[in-house]
Records
---
Amino acid sequence: VDALVRERRFDAAHVDTIGLAPLATRVPAPLVQNHHNVESAMMERRAASAPSALRRALYRSEARKLAELEWRCADYTALHLAVSELDAERLRERVGAADVRVVANGVDTDWFAPRRALGHGDGGLVFAGAMDWYPNREATRWLVREIWPLLAADRPERRLAIVGRAAPAEVAGAARADARVEAPGFVGDVRPWLDDASIYLCPIRDGGGTRLKVLDALAMAKPLVATALAVEGLGLEAERHYLRAEAPHEWLAQVRRLESDAALRRRLAEAGRRLVARRFDWSVIGRALVAAHRDAARAARPLRSISGGTRAPAPDTAAPLPTRRCPDAAESEAG
């Protein structure tokens, strides 16, 4: 970074995670900080659902440290980018009157485009996501442990593909024990797996931000069954863009509905594809991101005088932070 600054002048500095923000103080330009998640909020949520008291204490401690880092980094950040209005609200609660703008995650709708007929019903069920990311890992464990046995017993000819690297032991074991379950690991191109499937399952119950996997699935015109948390921040409407399921028996009921109703499959497929093309295509997101960078550069505010004393006090790192729950998080996650 020091070498680059000596060689060139920069109008703005963009950092893609809060962990890199301190490094950007070396760049004499307004800082734009991108938040894929509000890290402290995500850790608070993880603490709330941790299975042991020790893990809960550890995650709460991490949440306090992350909240303090978010607060301190606001001192030298010209513009914060959040992926949803919900995350923007969470971030403002932590950093006060800082400039926070929403620039959503996006998807290349030309690349992720269906080849097969919309709403076709001759494929199986699919989930795609890297399982070294803990929300995906826990989601797939829950899927094979509690949801798939109901689906398999109800209709023995059903098939399930869980696509992505670092499959946990439960997923790998299910694929070995049951010929109807596939776990191919990392694939160079996920589109054929999505295209062949009839229904995309997203049983995410933890994490933060918004889920790119959901945007990919909708761009591929997949009828989607998901938890409310899995689609959090995307503006999806249940029964219009996806079918909501929380408890295992609800997953069974929603999959049954889709398998037995071709018109419903097609309606969800069309609505999901339209939504992402209109709101989340990279051409739309790119314009918003460019505008944000231009505004940050034109502001030309000194790097360390952005907050002007208007931010909220730093969080009390000796006391637990209040845990904010999104709608439906109590019943039900984000990558």
---
Amino acid sequence: MNIYDIETVKLLLEKQPIISIIPHKNPDGDAIGSCLGLYLFLKQLDYDVEVVSANDFPDFLKWLPSAKDILIYDNTPEAAKERLEKSGLIFTLDFNALKRADSLAPLLEASGATFVMIDHHQAPDNYARVTISDPKASSTCAMVYRLIEAMGKESLINKDIATCLYTGLMTDTGNFKYPTTTSNTLRIGAALIDKGAENSLINSNTFDTWSYNKSQLLSIALRNMVYLPQYHTAYITLTGEELQAHNHQKGDTEGFVNYGLMIKDAQLAIIFIEEGDFVKMSLRSKGDVDVNQIARAHFNGGGHINAAGGRYDGTVEEAVAYFREVLPTLFN
């Protein structure tokens, strides 16, 4: 984050534009936390600002301050379209290619607004006037905190803003477990706690909210797990029928993929989740196994070195067959 980017953002805000903030499709804790944190910060400064999401987000994030204010395109497409059409400044948070906004992508591509990207994924597209990109950052929430700090507005971070940013910081670092957790990450977490974020409450509200159906779905996922010791790889499959049988809700499979990495010596874990005529994939790894490259090369996705997502057009069986076909080449 350089001085020029900070000064440009400040100049753009001085124009008092109508502002929209956009997360990626299927927003997670970091996407929702960073969007709401920035939204509440800009509301403190009396801007006309809204968060617009392509689709809904998991119930375990709906307790966050002002989560009810998020405009969901899937629910009210005309209102979301009208909002984007009149926006003069658009922040895109936690993604770096407009296609990741899914149904909002055509509206964003057609917009005459000025764009500011804040993101920590690799290889950003070149669509924004200001691109604040740091693949080494632990989370987009950490980057939003640093932006507010660099603007000299840290005193405006209240309990609600701190709660939103801490939630994303916590979820995107796996409760401060992943390699992206640095001393700087912990300092930001401490600063947010000093601003009012309640660690224990945030943890409980986010993680201790499982339904019985989700617990049963996890048992199915673990039963379906396959481990390939010669490749130090575990994979999990969940079919549409299995999801339906357990009344699957958005966010229910969050974190399931990590169970594969709990196996001793496992270096790569993937979950294949059937969604209609395609398969959604989450990839996780340890060490220098680069799942971002795997997702980009084979599964129309991307992300970070140790955490990425992708998709396969076809059935779960076809996705697994293709994965097992290319797997030997990944470890050569």
---
Amino acid sequence: MTFTCFVGIDISKLTIDAVLYVSATEPSFHQQFENRPSGFQKLLTWINQRQSSAGVLFCLEHTGIYALPLCCFFNQRKLNYSLQSALHVKRSMGLQRAKNDKADAYMLARFAYLYRDEIKLSELPSQALLKIQHLLAYRQRLVKSKVALQIAAQELAAFTDNQFSSTIVKDSQKHITQLSASIILIDKQLQTIIAEDQQVHQVYQLATSVTGIGLQTAAYLLVHTNCFSGFDNWRKLACFAGTAPFEYTSGSSIHGRSKLSKIGNMKLKALLSNGANAAIQSPNEFSTYYNRKIAEGKPKLVALNGVRNKLLSRVIAVVQRGTPYIRNQTDYLQVAS
């Protein structure tokens, strides 16, 4: 689709700043609206006074829950919009001296104009995926609180007299028990929500058939890949997760080792590490690969990262193929026959 008008939107808790941008030779327009449905309707009215809404592309940053109402509004009216990473936009637009809502909205509009041939349109995830996303975020906060209480109580008991720490340790234990029960409840709710949606449940069953992929890893993959529709192949997913190695060379003077980029989803990367560690504990293709790399003299972390990438490749393969993961040669021969 050919876009003739680009609207960059900077979203905050109470307001949204919009900049209408057509080209570098034409003036841009700025207006602020409330971050609520009535403000969104005023935004469309403001745009229609200047341009036809048929060829408009809206560009906005990922701002979590603050952007969700606007995305729902665009989705209901079938308007074209693109959610972009703030880091991607910032590093693509050169030097920026000003920092305010209007400047950020202008930068987003200009980004959409410059990359209009490459930019990907966004789609609102299904209700099931949105519920899973919020539950995962809540679970992560619960785990963080639980770990903080556990460490504080252990350190207090180890370095202070019992008469000073006993009350705090006992009270902390009560909260830890309650948080543990809440985490278990969240896991049950995740399984219930996944089971209620046929498509999500089918993809979940395929993903968890791979050795080392459990509830948490599969749920995070479902959310961040939009039920595996956001990535064409496992290499792009590995790049997103931060497990893809990149070379470090320049001319004839710099010949560094290939290494992982720090730009990636750290939570997903950690979950894949847990899955890789679990996968190599039993005899299978992952442990065989890991042991072979160790025998070749590769560092353990390099070998483990290879297992992480193998997990991603197997998950993508089973989802695209539509059949469960084949764990051993006997199963493969049975399926082939």
---
Amino acid sequence: DVLIGPGSKELMFLLQLVYYGDLVIPTPSWVSYAPQAHIIGRHVRWVPTAREDHWMLTPQELEAICKKDPQRPRLVILNYPSNPTGRSYTVKDLKALAAVARKNRVVLLSDEIYGELHHHGRHVSIARFYPEGTIISSGLSKWCGAGGWRLGVFVFPPALRWLLEAMAVVASETFTSTAAPIQYAAVRAYEGGLEIEEYLWHSRRILRGIGTTIARRLEGAGVIVPRPQGAFYLFPDFENFREELGRRGIRTNEDLCHRLLEETGVALLPGSAFGARSDALTLRLAYVDFDGARALTASHDVPREKPLSQTFLKTYCDAPLSAVERICAWLLR
């Protein structure tokens, strides 16, 4: 049972419109989940996550939320690989979360739009372990590198067909269809084949090389940063520099963002945009400012058994690497 719309964001909005219950969002999380709920008038329950858990929801945290009112209907959003952290869940994590969700009859919205960009191609959906209560959300734009080509996909289990039907009724009054050129592009993308698999393999290889290199450089400078496992984001934490930054008049992640932009020319987003506390010195870093077509072509010339060298990354993906060098130099000046 599949519902297609002009972007997964539109489908998420419709789901919240037809499902009456609390929206449970782990923080940090993507910026549009909560605003959509507020527009509709739904109650949002934020679940703060911890640095030591790499900012991912734990089964214990989900159980604690459900235990307060076991009968209350809840829609819990999981996004992995994560925007803003680039982290993902292990199979063990997913099994444990699925067990808690099943016990408490939670509806899971598993936002897997970056699933095909797991850096080792090992993405596993939680629907494998809780199929009857999981809606899988995906789309065209991220894994295809097709930003602006808005086509979202929701996959429902038979037990939640009533939600699909309710969303389809509202959808018929809010949009007619996804634009025809995008439909043709989606048909080709979802047909798969060797060309698509080659594209994904090299995309993952490049993103893995950039993300790992940047994380190591930040770690070397003293920044706390979980190693990325997918997508193209990092969520560095500058807590180790709090005292020094405080002497510079920087006390919030918004302050830190502004000063980095003004003094290094590097643009990041504050953690508060993703639900983190303002006084937490966390930022989101996206590392896609490079010519993807040129890098993909060059990656084909490097044997598959060899990792991409620093020379390769510097030649074809220099902008994000240089930006991080400027951040590190600014921190340590």
